[in-house]
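Design job #97: recover the sequence.
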């Protein structure tokens, strides 16, 4: 095998065989494939495509370029992946709820990307929590508690790590073939029996248009199934923030309020139950999605999910009393400024991407890779589409470290909202299912 010939084959529309994919992925991981060759490969895939067979081959090859976990547990191993959004803290509810239903969840998560929040950044707001504990600790906590939300180690899918960095600087990120193989290689390296996907659509999603979201969902489901992992996807709404809060510690507070029942966010709960229903069917624990969703409802209502969350936090180095004392344990921002509605009317439009960007500029995300997150900042009390506002009533509350930063965020949030005298139709939470 030779990199030059593999690249030329893809360039000429001949696709990618399993053998060629395995050789190329091993070369990416070992360094035998140069940066120039990796860039040319990515561009050839971007322009010509590799079809479902090629996607399966590349996914398997990148998965196998590093460590693939294996499990010996008393139940199925299942995970969820979201394509990313604003105020989307579903993972923090779903992992413990699934564990409470007898499923094992090694949730290998990422950090914020662009304007979207990252599960790992949220978990790291919990003092002492070890988000990168290594594979042995991950396996131990999953076996003992039922779930662990952690980050990927360097041993997981190293070929993807290298190719992702090269795509980032070569104009080849937005390829469905490459996105599919990138997401799935990391997820499938966790040794899953099943994977449920939350593909977001709307102003705050990477796929703003339904046709693009559907195309990505179809590709992910077909490729995961082709690679031997049962998979289904829901296309869920991201035309506004899913939670009332966006920002790392603020989202953890919203999760804890929902888990403990002190202030339930229904949108978060309903999306969690729908994805959980899918996951429990994939796991063979429920006959139908509705049965599965009812099991998740029960885990949340009875406090079982909260209990599992508390055990996971403690097992990974966080406070032993986090569930009871989370308001005292999480950081809070010194400057709080409301964003007054400029006039009375119904909320008709939210630019969710602009809200995410506002959180990033407050310090809740990264403008460059080396930026350190400020965990306490963000937005809370976000008004939702269809809500009727009086003039001056807050559209949101800005949590900032300085008055200057707060002022910029107030202007950005005000511009992100559209108000009108006519009541709009509220967007559905779930737009579709691919399975
Ligand atoms: N997330 C990934 O892990 N890879 C991509 O290519 C895009 C999103």
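Job complete. Output follows.
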């Amino acid at each position: 095998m030779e990199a030059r010939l593999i690249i030329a084959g893809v360039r000429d529309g001949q696709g990618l065989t399993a053998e060629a994919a395995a050789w190329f992925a091993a070369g990416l991981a070992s360094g035998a494939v140069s940066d120039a060759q990796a860039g040319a490969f990515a561009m050839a895939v971007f322009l010509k495509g590799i079809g479902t067979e090629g996607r399966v081959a590349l996914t398997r090859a990148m998965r196998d370029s590093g460590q693939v976990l294996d499990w010996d547990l008393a139940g199925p191993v299942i995970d969820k992946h979201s394509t990313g959004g604003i105020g989307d803290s579903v993972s923090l509810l779903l992992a413990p709820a699934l564990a409470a239903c007898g499923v094992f969840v090694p949730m290998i998560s990422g950090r914020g990307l662009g304007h979207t929040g990252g599960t790992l950044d949220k978990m790291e707001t919990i003092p002492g929590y070890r988000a990168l504990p290594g594979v042995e600790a991950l396996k131990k906590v999953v076996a003992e508690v039922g779930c662990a939300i952690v980050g990927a180690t360097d041993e997981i899918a190293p070929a993807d790590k290298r190719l992702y960095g090269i795509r980032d600087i070569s104009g080849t990120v937005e390829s469905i073939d490459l996105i599919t193989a990138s997401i799935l290689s990391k997820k499938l390296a966790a040794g899953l029996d099943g994977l449920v996907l939350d593909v977001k659509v709307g102003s705050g999603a990477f796929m703003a248009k339904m046709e693009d979201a559907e195309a990505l969902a179809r590709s992910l489901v077909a490729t995961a199934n082709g690679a031997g992992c049962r998979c289904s996807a829901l296309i869920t709404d991201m035309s506004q923030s899913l939670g009332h809060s966006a920002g790392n510690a603020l989202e953890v507070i919203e999760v804890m309020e929902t888990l403990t029942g002190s202030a339930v966010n229904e949108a978060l709960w309903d999306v969690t139950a729908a994805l959980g229903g899918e996951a429990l069917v994939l796991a063979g624990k429920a006959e139908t999605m509705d049965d599965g969703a009812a099991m998740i409802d029960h885990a949340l209502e009875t406090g079982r999910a909260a209990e599992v969350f508390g055990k996971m936090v403690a097992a990974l180095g966080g406070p032993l009393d986090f569930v009871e004392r989370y308001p005292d344990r999480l950081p809070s921002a010194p400057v709080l400024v409301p964003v007054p509605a400029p006039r009375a009317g119904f909320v008709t439009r939210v630019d969710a991407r602009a809200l995410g960007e506002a959180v990033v500029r407050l310090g809740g995300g990264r403008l460059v890779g080396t930026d350190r997150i400020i965990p306490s900042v963000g937005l809370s009390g976000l008004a939702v589409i269809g809500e009727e506002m009086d003039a001056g009533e807050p559209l949101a509350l800005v949590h900032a470290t300085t008055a200057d930063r707060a002022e910029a965020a107030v202007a950005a949030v005000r511009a992100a909202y559209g108000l009108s005298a006519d009541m709009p139709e509220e967007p559905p939470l779930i737009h579709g299912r691919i399975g």
